[in-house]
């Protein structure tokens, strides 16, 4: 991932964060997802009065990408304000479905930390094996 793309993803994630709907936690998150072919899809967290119905920024971006016909994820960048935030367990599993080898970039106020999804979700569940 070159610096220009990292900067672009960070800018798009911060932009998406501005639309986060988080009246309960007041924790706003934005994500920018890079798919094969170079298209970028964004998402923000969307909370609900029934807290369990909340959707994280990462899964919102993943849904937007899949809805547009994309099924190969290359990288995601997450922006949550001053501090670095890494994706929750549920989002790691969802991202793994479409990008087991993807890069996960986590922005803070002035830096970007890079992880691989494999690092964040080792030994991921990948489905049922026939005959087991
Ligand atoms: N959240 C995200 O959108 N992404 C993360 O990686 C961590 C958590 C959201 C869910 C909820 O709206 C709020 O942050 C607090 O957990």
Topology (SSEs and partners):
Elements: H1 3-17, E1 30-35, E2 40-44, H2 57-67, E3 73-79, H3 89-98, E4 103-107, E5 112-116, H4 117-120
This protein binds tetrahydrodeoxyuridine (THU).
Give an account of the 3D structure.
There is one protein chain. The protein has helices at 3-17, 57-67, 89-98, 117-120; strands at residues 30-35, 40-44, 73-79, 103-107, 112-116. Strands 2-1-3-4-5 form a five-stranded mixed beta sheet. The protein is globular. The chain has four helices and five strands. It has one domain (3-120): Cytidine Deaminase, domain 2. The protein has 132 residues and is of the alpha+beta class. It binds tetrahydrodeoxyuridine.
CATH architecture: 3-Layer(aba) Sandwich
Oligomer: single chain
CATH topology: Cytidine Deaminase, domain 2
Strand order of the largest sheet: 2-1-3-4-5
- The number of domains is 1
Gyration radius, in Å:
14 Å
Number of strands: 5
Report mean pLDDT, rounded to a whole number: 96
Uncertain spans: none
Instruction: Summarize the biggest pleated sheet.
Output: 5 strands, mixed
The computed structural class is alpha+beta
Bound molecules: tetrahydrodeoxyuridine
Element order: H for helix, E for strand? HEEHEHEEH
Q: Tell me, what's the shape?
A: globular
Number of helices: 4
Helical content, roughly? 25-40%
CATH superfamily: Cytidine Deaminase, domain 2
CATH class: Alpha Beta
N- and C-termini, Cα separation: 38 Å
